[in-house]
Amino acid sequence: MANQHSDEPTHQLLCHIMTGVKHLDEVRNTTVLTSVSRNELIHTVHDRQLCFLGHMLRNTHSPQSTCQHLCTISTNSRHAAVRLNYMDYIERLTGMKTNKLVEVSQDREAWRELVVTCVGLQPPD
Fold it and tell me: What's the whole-number mean pLDDT along residues 84-91?
């Protein structure tokens, strides 16, 4: 199995070759990756998190208890930093409150539209 770290420069070089961008052109790698339709990692993470949450809310008997379970964080840490719990993070990402998220999650098509809108990705074919 190839090392992921050694594959990344090769992939970027191939993307530069595919787009015809030379090193001297001083074009950022993110621009080149975008032009070959490769999503940034954070978009993939957001997409998968929202898909997982929609699945969890649709396939449980009590979506509200699922939300409460996801909001639970351990407080045994000695760090003083305030952590953002999962549902607050999702509310910030989607711009919707938990009750509205539960309602929208019951309709698979509406949830997928929400995911595509929030993440900015094209829906799969």
Answer: 80
Confidence band, pLDDT 50/70/90 cuts, at residue 2:
very low
Answer yes or no: do 77 and 113 share one domain: yes
- Let me know if residue 125 belongs to a domain: no
* 72 shares a domain with 29: no
Radius of gyration of the chain (CA): 19
φ/ψ of residue 99, rounded to 5: -60, -40
The residue range of the domain holding 28 is 4-35
Distances (CA, A) of 28 to 9, 11, 31, 40: 13, 14, 5, 13
* 90 alpha-carbon distance from chain centroid: 10
Backbone angles phi, psi at 31, to 5 degrees: -65, -40
* 15-34: average pLDDT: 77
